[in-house]
Design brief:
The structure holds two protein chains of two kinds.
Chain A: H1 2-7, H2 14-45, H3 55-68, H4 70-81, H5 88-117, H6 121-134, H7 140-155, H8 160-186
Chain B: H1 4-21, H2 36-41, E1 54-55, E2 58-59, H3 64-85, H4 91-112, H5 120-139
Antiparallel strand pairs in B: 1-2
Classes of the chains: A mainly alpha, B mainly alpha.
C-alpha cells in the first residue's frame, strides 16, 4: 500500500517544490556567485591583454553552463527526496522555480558583496573590462560601442528589482528545459507504476 | 502526442526567447547592451559584440553560439510533432545530442588553446545542432503513452 502511495500520480503544492528548488537554487547561486567573484578579481588584477578570453568572459561561459543544469539537478533531488514519479508539467515548474531562486539569490549576494564587502568592485570591474576592450585589435567604432554598452549595462538602471525582473524569465526557461531533460532521465512516468 | 498544453506553452516561451534574443534592433533601440533585451540575457550570456550577429543595426542580445542554441531549440521544438509521428524514441537523437555536445567542447577548447580560430558562423551552426538535438531529445516526453 505504501509502495503504491509513493509512486502514485498526484499534484504537488508550491511548498513541496520549494525544498528542491531552494536547496539546488542556493547551491548553484553560491557556486555561480563564487565563480563570478573569483574571475572578477582575476580580471581586476590582470594586465589588459586585449585577449578575447579574458577572465570575465570565461566566468560568463562557466556560469552559464553551470547554472543551466540546476533545473536537471533539482529534478534529480525531487525524485530522490519527494517522489520518484514526476509529470512533465511538474518538472517544468520545478525547473523554472530553480532558475528564479538562482537569479534572486545571485542578485542579493552581489548586492551584499558590493554594498558591504567591496563597494568599489563594480567600478573596478568596469574599468578592467574597458581597459581590456581598449587593448583589443578591433575597429575603433566597435570598441566604442562595446565600451558604451558595458558601461550602460553595468551602471544604468540596474536596480535589484530590475535585475530580478529581467533575469528570471530566460534563466527560468533555460532551467525549465534542462529540468525536462531531468524528468526524462531521472523520473518515472505515472503510467510506469503498477 | 500528450501534454499538448505544455508543448504549446513552451513553444510560445521559446518563440518569445528567440525574438527577444534578436536584441534592441527589433524594438527600435540603437544599442542592445543596456536595453531590456540585453538585460534579459545578461545572466546567461557574455554578450561580446565581436562574437555576436547584428540585427537591424544593433548587436543581438546573445552571442552567436547562444543564438544558435536558442534558434536550434525553436526549430527542434517545431519538429517534435513530426518526430513523434515518425515514431520518436530514436537512438540517433541521443547520438546526435552527444556528438553536438562534444563538438561544442572541442570547438571551444581548440579556440581557447589557439589550435584554430572559430567564426561566428561556425559557432552558430554548432550551437543550432546542439539546440535542435536537445529539443528532439526532450520531445520523447510528449509521446503518447496510451498506445496499445
Amino acid at each position: 500500500m505504501e509502495e503504491q502511495d509513493s509512486t502514485a500520480e498526484r499534484n504537488y503544492s508550491f511548498g513541496e517544490y520549494l525544498p528542491s528548488a531552494g536547496i539546488v537554487g542556493v547551491i548553484f547561486a553560491l557556486l555561480t556567485f563564487a565563480i563570478g567573484i573569483f574571475f572578477g578579481y582575476q580580471q581586476i588584477n590582470a594586465e589588459p591583454t586585449g585577449s578575447y578570453f579574458s577572465p570575465s568572459m570565461l566566468s560568463g561561459v562557466i556560469i552559464c553552463l553551470v547554472s543551466a543544469f540546476a533545473g536537471m539537478v533539482a529534478v534529480w533531488h525531487f525524485t530522490k527526496e519527494v517522489s520518484p514519479v514526476m509529470k512533465l508539467g511538474q518538472g517544468a515548474v520545478l525547473g523554472f522555480l530553480t532558475g528564479a531562486v538562482i537569479i534572486i539569490l545571485s542578485v542579493l549576494l552581489n548586492e551584499i558583496w558590493t554594498g558591504l564587502i567591496d563597494a568599489t568592485y563594480t567600478e573596478k570591474i568596469i574599468d578592467a573590462t574597458i581597459a581590456n576592450i581598449e587593448a583589443m585589435d578591433i575597429p575603433e567604432s566597435a570598441k566604442n560601442d562595446a565600451i558604451d554598452g558595458i558601461a550602460q549595462s553595468m551602471e544604468a538602471g540596474n536596480s535589484i528589482w530590475s535585475q530580478i525582473f529581467w533575469g528570471i524569465p530566460i534563466t527560468g526557461l533555460v532551467n525549465l528545459l534542462t529540468a525536462l531533460i531531468g524528468v526524462k532521465i531521472f523520473a518515472k512516468k505515472p503510467e510506469e507504476t503498477f | 502526442m500528450e501534454n499538448r498544453r505544455i508543448y504549446f506553452g513552451i513553444l510560445f516561451a521559446v518563440t518569445a526567447m528567440v525574438l527577444f534574443s534578436l536584441g534592441g534592433g527589433l524594438w527600435g533601440a540603437e544599442q542592445t547592451l543596456g536595453h531590456w533585451t540585453g538585460k534579459m540575457f545578461q545572466p546567461v550570456c557574455h554578450q561580446n559584440p565581436e562574437r555576436s550577429f547584428y540585427f537591424l543595426g544593433s548587436q543581438m542580445a546573445v552571442n552567436t553560439r547562444c543564438f544558435g542554441i536558442f534558434s536550434g531549440i525553436w526549430v527542434g521544438w517545431m519538429l517534435i510533432p513530426f518526430y513523434l509521428r515518425a515514431g520518436g524514441g530514436n537512438r540517433s537523437v541521443i547520438i546526435l545530442l552527444l556528438v553536438a555536445a562534444v563538438a561544442q567542447i572541442i570547438d571551444f577548447g581548440g579556440n581557447l588553446f589557439s589550435y584554430w580560430t572559430n567564426t561566428n558562423m561556425s559557432r552558430f551552426i554548432l550551437g543550432s545542432v546542439l539546440g535542435t538535438a536537445t529539443a528532439l531529445y526532450i520531445g520523447d516526453l510528449f509521446k503518447s503513452s496510451t498506445k496499445h
